[in-house]
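User: Second chain of the day. Same drill as before.
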Amino acid sequence: MTTRKLAVISAGVRVPSSTRLLADRLTEATVAALRERGVDADVEVVELREHAHEVLDAVLTGFPAPGLRAAVEAVTGADGVIAVTPIFSGSYNGLFKTFFDGLDDGVLAGKPTLIGATGGTGRHSLALEHAVRPLFTYLRSIVVPTAVYAAPEDWAGGADGVAPLDQRIARAAGELAELVAARPAPEVVDPFADPVVSFAELLGGR
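Assistant: Same format as last time:
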């Protein structure tokens, strides 16, 4: 099996967090969908809550602190991204936006991305389409068609007229897995593959 890297960004601010729960559900479904396609997944989860001060410092200074650098590298080096935010006042929260504001321009270009959100009411579900999706479109990510929003009633079994949460998660995960599996495998460079240059040739090139 080939291996692809997944970066999972959770911007929940409480513990326990429904945002992290949704991120975990989306990750599990994506890993399973990749496995069905003959692809193994190397998953790295970034809890932005743990880096809140460093996220702000990175925007102010232009440089991520050591603790945040690994999180940034996880995102920039991933073959696919799962990004989940709580919805505050009808949009993504400030921690989520500030983290992505601090990334270098172009690092998410062409990267398959699944977006999700949680909120206290189903009335905020369109925030994924009017706020979160435009953010990643601006960053030139390839955002999968299905975005997943989870309100309290979704965890409790769903609401009339809304597809069950499990079905939406499975559909979105399949869309992301399809894009990630189609990405070319990273080229492996053998550091010992270059021809050996003799000492005489080195002297002759002075």
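The longest strand covers residues 2-10.

User: Great, on to the next one.
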